[in-house]
Amino acid sequence: MPPATPPRRWRRFAAATALACTVGAFAPPAAAGTAAAAQASAPAPVPAGAGPGGGAGAGSSPVPHLDWAPCTHAPRYDCATARVPLDHRRPWGRTIELAVIKRPAVEPHRRVGSLFYHPGLRADGTEALRETYDDFPLAVRKRFDIVSWDLRGTGKSTPLRCFRSTARALRWAERLPEGFPVGARERRVWIKGWAELGRRCAKRAPALIRYMSAADTARDLDLLRAAVGDRRLNYLGTSYGTFAGATYANLFPRRVRAMTLDSNVNPREWVRRGSWLPTFLRQDFDLASAQGLSRFLDLCGRSTPDDCAFSAGNPQATRSKFERLLHRLRHDPQGYWTYAATVSFAVEQLRDVDPGWTELADKLQELWEDSAPAGPGSGIRARTLPAPAHASWHEDDNYPGFEWQYAMMCGESPNPRDPRRYRAIERFSRARAGDPGAYWTWRNEPCATWPARAANPYTGPWDHYTAPILTVGITNDPTTPYENSRAMTRQLANARLLTVKGDGHMALMNPSDCVKRHESRYFIKGALPPRGTVCRQDTRPFGPLG
User: 155: which residues sit within 8 A by CB, 6+ positions away?
Assistant: First the structure.
């Protein structure tokens, strides 16, 4: 997973923020539980823009040819390159490349089709699929080719590169405060640094940065669906990938066969204009992280130090211990481990319960004992900057891609345009969410000076009728709050929510056999779980499930 070690504290990337078929459409909802839909005769493939499905954008775009070959860097995977229009409204104009990866179905004689995986704002689907493949339900791996791709402008696809080299990108990043800015001087450095990045992007890639929205991705996806020969789309999207999935479902409603949206954003809030709050606060990410941090400290406090190294014997004492640690780090940082770096690390680690919560407890205890090394060792710097995508197979294979998620997000999601307003926004978020409020506020500030707007975004409506869609929400998700999954379910025309009682961000990464059973039946047979179904995760943090 890690690229070669770049200078100073850049040794590991951890995903931040944090996921098409040859059979006929599902049966109507009343008969969705039958196996008939999955056993229907496979119709002839339909090219993008032809036949049933309608939808804006890719009507006359040529379907790319995928010349699959074994991946040189990944045994058992096949790789290909797709050429797609930069601007889908001009299908015969300038083109860009998409890097595509596939793990063939384990039982090809029983193959249903292809399942496309969108990993969210981390963007690097070719790497993400290799890291998460074993987390997909076995029944799904048996029956589907699992396919992903580096989103346009990222990774091995035609990349947005706002620096001439990796070295220059890292030198730029080294000047930024760790995690988020604290104090007037650091705020000035932060604002100036991200404004510089925007100017560089506008100068080096003025066209590409206008065509990296979720709508552009959805139109790419429709071409990829046609390229693999599938009449309708099977799709798993996680985190921001849920917004891209909802966009596809409403651009191409009749081309959805099966779509699972795991740990959802609220699509209306993502594109809502006129709010004084930035994107992540409109989504209540700060409140979700505050709840997740509170639950981490409670469960740690109820555990013994053998199970949770940071435990002080009970929840109240453990909370007090954490507050005293942050207070000390504000005034006496331990090398790299400033107050902001520690808060940022905590927010990121909450997403992955195993091993993330244990690693967080261990690191906090090291800091408490004043024994943490001057540098992070495990490369936390890559977490505390707004999450770069991972480009380990590009010709410049250490290029961190800090600009990629902002090109996707800032152009389509409104944010306050005056950087000076973010200090007041931080105060608001701190008042309601505590320390995580600063983290989430300043992760959106780069959008204040981002130089481009998406040329052709999709902003709704979200209620075009589709085949049934399965949404999945974790009750104590520390990034995308459970209420966002409920909101996604309400806004889509034909969706059902599967509730997961547990912790962490994305059910795919925080496993539940119950969820896997329901997702397998849904993808293979078209059978949704009964309304109101609640699953539990397989393990509980710091101890046995119970």
Answer: 99, 123, 124, 125, 126, 127, 389, 390, 391, 393, 394, 401
- Tokens representing 321 are 């211990």
- Dist CA 230 CA 114 (whole Å): 7
Instruction: Report the C-alpha gap between 429 and 94 in whole angstroms.
Output: 43
Least confident stretch, 17-21, 246-250, 418-422 = 17-21
- CA nearest to 201, candidates 417, 410, 7: 410
Judged by DSSP in three states, 103 sits in strand
Residue whose tokens read 């680690």: 349
Q: What is the three-class DSSP state of 84?
A: strand
On whether the CB atoms of residues 447 and 410 are closer than 8 A, the answer is yes
For residue 67, the SS3 value is coil
Answer yes or no: are the C-beta atoms of 483 and 451 closer than 8 Å: no
Rounded Cα distance, 94 and 358, in Å: 49
- pTM of the shown model: 0.88
Residue 400's CB is within 10 A of a number of other CB atoms, namely: 23
Mind listing the pLDDT tens digit for each residue in 86-142? 999 999 999 999 999 999 999 999 999 999 999 999 889 999 999 999 999 999 999
Quote the CA–CA distance of 221 and 58 in Å, as a whole number: 10
Distance CA 405, CA 407 (A): 5
Which of 214, 201, 185 has its CA nearest to residue 446? Answer: 201
* Residue 335 neighbours by CB distance under 10 Å: 12
Which tokens go with 127?
A: 């790497």
Q: Alpha-carbon distance 263 to 428, whole Å?
A: 25
Burial track 258-277 (b if 16+ CB lie within 10 A, e otherwise):
bbbbbbbbbbbbbbbeeeeb
> Strands, E, within 361-494: which ranges?
469-476
Q: Phi and psi for 363 in degrees, rounded to 5?
A: -65, -40
Query: Alpha-carbon distance 132 to 152, whole Å?
Result: 21
Amino acid at 537: Q
Residue 150's closest CA among 236, 212, 72, 76?
212
Element (H, E) at 527: none
Structure tokens that stand for 533 in this block: 């179904």
DSSP letter (8 states) at residue 449: G
Q: Work out whether the CA dihedral 241, 247, 251, 255 comes out positive or negative.
A: positive
Whether the Cβ atoms of residue 13 and residue 348 lie closer than 8 Å to each other: no
